[in-house]
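cron nightly-structures :: item 1 of 1
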Amino acid sequence: MAHPIRRGILARLATGEATVAELAKPYDVSAPAISKHMRILEDAGLLSRTKHGREHRCRLEPARMKEAQGWIEQQRQFWNDRLDSLERYLKENP
């Protein structure tokens, strides 16, 4: 998800389904490059594709995003607790 194109694709899909062509339109990259980004997102379970004739329609898979959000929240809480402990320790032991 770190790549700006992947983030852009996910942001666009958050507004609704789109074809691969619609998702590729804002980016000045080759079709194989877009396909690679799509495959990475699909392998991660963040989007799904259905084929209608020659057209591929994509949609966001929000369940995987919720899983990621839960993990990120756990990490945030863990590190906030650790940093709070460090701050207390440093104040008590100058």
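cron nightly-structures :: done
The chain has a mean pLDDT of 92.
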